[in-house]
Amino acid sequence: MNNRIAELIKKLPDDIDGVLITSIINRQYFTSFRSSDGILVITREKSVLFVDFRYYEQAKEKVKDVQVELLTATSVQLRKLRDECKLKKIGMESSKMTVTEYIKYQAIFDSTEIAFDNKTNILIENLRRYKDNEELEAIHHAQSFAERAFYDIIKFIKPGKSEREIAARLEFVMKCSGSEENAFPVMVSCGKNTAYPHHTPTDNKVKNGDFIVMDFGAKYNGYCSDMTRTVALGNVSNEMRNIYDIVLKSQKLALAKIKPGVLCKDVDTVARDYITQKGYGEYFGHSLGHAVGMEVHESPFFSPQSQISHCRVGHVMTVEPGIYIPDKFGVRIEDMVYIGQDNVKNLTKPEKNLIIIQNSI
Q1: CA Rg, the chain, in Å?
Q2: How far apart are CA 4 and CA 294, in angstroms?
Q3: How far apart are CA 261 and CA 279, in angstroms?
Q4: Is it the case that residue 269 has pLDDT exceeding 60?
Q5: What would the pLDDT profile of 182-219 be if each residue is shown by its tens digit?
Q6: Which of 103, 174, 188, 290 could cross-link to 163 by cystine, CB 3.0-4.6 Å?
Q7: How do beta strands 113-115 and 89-92 pair?
Q8: DSSP letters along 71-115, please?
């Protein structure tokens, strides 16, 4: 039995006999095998991964400590397993399942009580918060691909390049470096568009005097990276430089606050209070950061709403303060950090002092 499955079983409520997992991400988390379709059933007696013909031979070769079965007749096979393991009550991923899927599995497990509350979700979510060495190494790889793209892009940007071109170049270099796919759609904005925190790249072209905000991440072995850098093209105004310095200082204050046991809300407060003291609190409307793993946005969050979540050893978190002034410009700087027992390691290496690109046409 692998460690992740063992931990899940260890933490299962006494009245739950097993868990049905259908989501791609959680199947991969517990089996280290990714497939577009499949069903994983974890019980106290054994765990079985059902996959169709497309994945069967590969799964048999790669999946360890989990029984692999060729999926041919879902209802028959799941009922057989239910009877073998005497499943009286089974938990399901309510947050990952459609109503149609729920009705389907409710019919299959007709004589089994289904725990379709949020407890199974929370249990798995809590397990995934803590990254082991294998997961951390995958995030390191993903981040290295993103950083190669960043070092390339600051040489690529020049007046006349569009947001779409810059986004496409970032994606191209990440994939050429080894990224499986984007961790999320690449976000690039320039000029007034930088005032939109989650701007979709357009044909808007970069010109001298612009800020360019780039938020992007790569993926390796199913794990994401996430970083944001704001750079400038040509000369910048004193106001732009001042806003950039405020965002950078707020991030440094937040980074210094992070350590095991600190409330996530308090990390957010440090950055938010500083930005507010400088007169720009109304222009920082999103949370300070979030956990990163197999999904780019995981819990916990550095947020004013994080009333009970604490920083814990094993968390990988982003710290991404921003200021966005409508019709003018915006700035965001984002790093990923790993919270260790004795120190907090910044996983994001590229320069954070304002980079001014002097390229000309």
Answers
A1: 23
A2: 14
A3: 30
A4: yes
A5: 999 999 999 999 999 999 999 999 999 999 999 999 99
A6: 188
A7: parallel
A8: -S-HHHHHHHHHHHHT-SEEEE-GGG--HHHHHHHHHHTTTSEEE
- Judge whether residue 359 has pLDDT over 80: no
Question: Which tokens in the block code for residue 161?
Answer: 């390049």
Phi then psi for residue 68, to 5 deg, are: -105, 130
Task: Using pLDDT thresholds of 50, 70 and 90, give the confidence band for residue 361.
Answer: low
Report field, pTM of the whole predicted structure over 0.70: yes
Residue 345, SS3 per DSSP? strand
Nearest in space to 188 (alpha carbons), one of 137, 142, 154, 224: 154
Quote the tokens at residue 68: 């692999």
Partners of residue 51 on adjacent β-strands: 70
CB 334 within 8 A of CB 227: yes
Quote the tokens at residue 173.
């270099």
Strands 344-346 and 223-224: unpaired
CA dihedral in degrees (305, 309, 314, 316; nearest 10)? 0
Pick the closest to residue 199 from 222, 183, 216, 220 (CA basis).
216
Provide the mean pLDDT of the chain: 95
3-state SS of 12-23? CCCCCCEEEECC
Largest CA distance in the chain: 72
Summarised one tens digit per residue, pLDDT across range 308-354 is 999 999 999 999 999 999 999 999 999 999 999 999 999 999 999 99
Per the DSSP assignment, residues forming a β-bridge with 113 are 89
Other CB atoms within 10 A of residue 348 CB:
21
